[in-house]
Amino acid sequence: MAWFFYLVCSIGMGFWLLSWPVRKRKAGHLLLNAGRTWHNKMLFWIGIAEIAVAAVITWVSVVTLTDLPDISSAIAPAFTKISFWWMVALFIVSVGLNKLELRENGLCFLYTAIPWRRMTSYTWETSYPDILTIRVQPRLLLLPRLMRIRIPAAHRHEIDRIVQTYIARSGIGSRTL
Q1: Is 174 within 8 Å of 133 (Cβ atoms)?
Q2: What confidence score (pLDDT) does residue 172 get?
Q3: CA distance 17 to 88
């Protein structure tokens, strides 16, 4: 039954990646491309490590299959497991290569488009001036209400200018959020 979990997750990740151009287009015209953030770069390297994990799982699965006397019943579960781990690697690398973009209808970050209307306030962290903290109205109850993004220094003033036209600034420091 684990193969069903692998299959559903693989389809979900594939759909999320393939639907990105449509979701990004809905976010409107590009106002600023801030490039890859610290988060993106870390996820990229995690994705590279995940490629190694997927390769090992593929190798172990193939070796295990060749040792079985009747592999016909084990091929589909092994294939879905292998596909899942390669999809996870592709997903994480893709998110790592994604860029922070401010668009006319919202912010695009980590393959997610967040509309301006769902952002209630923002502030720059006083202890870490390169961290932008945005209070978000989550779509689901369990999702976080705060989003912290480490902004490249070269784009801080331009991002501040754009963000303040769409979101109310909330006082000094993150304590006021």
Answers
A1: yes
A2: 46
A3: 11
The number of C-alpha atoms within 13 Å of 30 and in the hemisphere containing its C-beta is 9
Task: Identify whether the C-beta of residue 37 lies closer than 8 Å to the C-beta of residue 108.
Answer: no
Please state, as a whole number, how many other Cβ atoms lie within 10 Å of the Cβ of residue 20.
Answer: 17
Residue predicted with more confidence, 19 or 144: 19
Across 22-75, where does the E strand assignment appear?
30-35
Amino acid at residue number 48: I
What's the predicted TM-score (pTM) here?
0.83
Q: Locate 108 and state its tokens.
A: 């695009």
Neighbours of 152 (CB within 10 A): 14
Handedness of CA 48, 53, 54, 59 (dihedral sign): positive
CA 135 to chain centre: 18
What is the rounded distance in angstroms from the CA atom of residue 64 to the CA atom of residue 66? 6
Rounded Cα–Cα distance for residues 147 and 149 (Å): 7
